[in-house]
Task: inverse folding
């Protein structure tokens, strides 16, 4: 029953209550790895615990591998070791030349950012990353952009390398550096001697000068060391060859001496293990790691192929899109060209139709012009014949005019002769009258005494009436002669007037022919100009408003000269 169980009768329950009352003390522990921080609560046993809370521990590799590619089996181990070595190089705990620093920085960037993409990794993307030791940055007068350009040039060549592969390439370069994996301690060869440096690494022990950590003065490989021991501050290195001298050195701090001994024991033990066959457990771990690496490599290859295929598909797609856009542009341009060609064809067809109509019209006009030309040629031939006849008539008129002039001159000469004869006749009559008067004076003196004086030769005709009957004959002859002269003069005047009328009529006919010829030639030139596309330049006669073409100028001047 329930009452049957009491605290005294149940020692187990009493022990539980005692445990509750006597809980152990705990303290906080902070573990810092290369990429994370973790806190724990630990119980206090027999060890002395520092009063600091939390107590900080750094999770680091104590012993460095000789060959990182063979000894770093797990990927997480490789990653943490990569971060540790990288930090030591940047903190200048491991010396690295500027060229090797740039190459290591490119692998670190590849491990962090993956493949280089110029569209994504713009200039300045490494500004916040610590990639080079300060000593290298101070050694050269180069800007951060110039260092980034050099690192990016190497980084672009690591395309296709995965993160673990980039970290492994980084470690493979780092393990060949002189200060890789070396732990340095201050020592003296004797109590009064100068200071030296002791270096402990995976290969053995090395003695350095204080100012040179790269080239040891003396080295003791693990394969040549038979025993290492120390007593308080004195270390003794016994070589495997007993003939060689024992090397002793001194360290002043006991805690450091213990650390040196632990490092020597651990590195020597690892040195000997590396030269023996791996245990089954290690072989299994390496086999699993190898299979895991092969599987990841296969996955990466598959992903790489898929990525490559995707990139090729994207490039093909972009090319197809570009080609599509190009074809669309070409189709648009071809369509526009087709529309322009159709418009041009329509315009050319319209122009061809217009040209055909114009050609028909011009052909019609040319036919009309040809007919007109033929008619004008016939008319010109007739006009030419008429001109010839007119010229002949003009020549005849000229000859007639010359004859008339000759006759006129001859008549004038005859008239002059007649006038001279008349004058001579009048002189003879006057002389005859003088003689008659003289005779009368002698015959009739009484009549002469009472009669008036004789009239002068210029007396009027009434004096002739008083002449004797024998003088009547000469007067009648004179009258008859004067009448003939007057009649011939009238005939000459009538003929001259008739000739002038004929000349005027001939002149008017010539003017009308000239005007008609000018109109015909103007119409011919106008028709030919319309058919040939030009107009004959007209010629204007001087001092006249009559327009004539050049071929009729000579004839017109000739006719004008004749008419004048």
Result:
């Amino acid at each position: 029953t329930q009452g049957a169980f009491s605290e005294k009768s149940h020692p187990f329950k009493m022990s539980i209550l005692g445990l509750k009352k006597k809980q152990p003390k705990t303290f906080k522990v902070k573990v810092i790895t290369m990429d994370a921080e973790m806190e724990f609560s630990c119980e206090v046993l027999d060890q002395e615990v520092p009063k600091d809370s939390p107590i900080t521990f750094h999770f680091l590799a104590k012993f460095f591998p000789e060959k990182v590619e063979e000894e770093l089996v797990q990927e997480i181990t490789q990653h943490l070791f990569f971060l540790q070595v990288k930090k030591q190089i940047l903190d200048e705990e491991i010396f690295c030349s500027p060229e090797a620093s740039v190459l290591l920085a490119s692998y670190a960037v590849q491990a962090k950012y993956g493949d280089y993409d110029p569209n994504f990794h713009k200039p300045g993307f490494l500004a916040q990353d610590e990639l080079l030791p300060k000593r290298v940055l101070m050694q050269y007068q180069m800007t951060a952009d110039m260092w980034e350009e050099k690192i990016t040039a190497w980084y672009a060549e690591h395309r296709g390398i995965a993160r673990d592969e980039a970290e492994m390439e980084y470690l493979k370069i780092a393990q060949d550096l002189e200060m890789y994996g070396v732990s340095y301690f201050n020592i003296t060869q004797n109590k009064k001697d100068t200071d030296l440096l002791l270096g402990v690494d995976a290969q053995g022990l090395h003695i350095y000068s204080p100012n040179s950590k790269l080239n040891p003065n003396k080295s003791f490989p693990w394969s040549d060391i038979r025993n290492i021991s120390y007593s308080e501050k004195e270390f003794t290195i016994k070589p495997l060859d007993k003939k060689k001298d024992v090397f002793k050195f001194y360290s002043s701090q006991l805690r450091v001496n213990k650390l040196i001994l632990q490092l020597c024991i651990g590195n020597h033990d690892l040195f000997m293990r590396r030269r023996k066959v791996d245990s089954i457990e290690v072989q299994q771990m390496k086999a699993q790691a190898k299979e895991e690496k092969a599987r990841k490599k296969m996955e990466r290859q598959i992903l790489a192929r898929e990525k490559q295929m995707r990139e090729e598909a994207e490039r093909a797609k972009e090319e197809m899109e570009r080609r599509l856009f190009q074809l669309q542009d070409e189709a648009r341009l071809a369509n526009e060209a087709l529309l322009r060609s159709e418009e041009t064809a329509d315009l050319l067809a319209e122009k061809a139709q217009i040209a055909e109509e114009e050609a028909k019209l011009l052909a019609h006009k040319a036919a009309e012009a040809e007919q007109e030309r033929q008619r004008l040629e016939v008319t010109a031939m007739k006009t030419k014949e008429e001109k010839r006849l007119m010229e002949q008539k003009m020549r005849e008129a000229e000859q007639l005019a010359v004859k008339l002039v000759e006759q006129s001159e001859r008549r004038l000469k005859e008239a002059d002769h007649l006038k001279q004869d008349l004058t001579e006749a009048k002189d003879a009559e006057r002389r005859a009258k003088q003689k008659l008067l003289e005779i009368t004076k002698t015959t009739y003196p009484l009549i002469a005494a009472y009669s008036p004086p004789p009239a002068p030769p210029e007396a009027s005709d009434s004096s002739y009436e008083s002449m004797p009957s024998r003088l009547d004959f000469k007067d009648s002859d004179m009258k008859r002669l004067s009448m003939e002269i007057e009649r011939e003069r009238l005939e000459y005047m009538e003929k001259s007037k008739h000739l002038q009328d004929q000349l005027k009529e001939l002149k008017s006919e010539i003017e009308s022919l000239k005007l008609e010829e000018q109109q015909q030639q103007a119409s011919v030139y106008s028709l030919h100009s319309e058919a040939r596309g030009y107009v004959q330049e007209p010629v204007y006669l001087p001092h006249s408003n009559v327009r004539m073409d050049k071929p009729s100028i000579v004839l017109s001047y000739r006719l004008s000269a004749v008419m004048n």
Notes: Residues 160 and 307 are 10 Å apart (CA to CA). The longest helix spans residues 280-443.
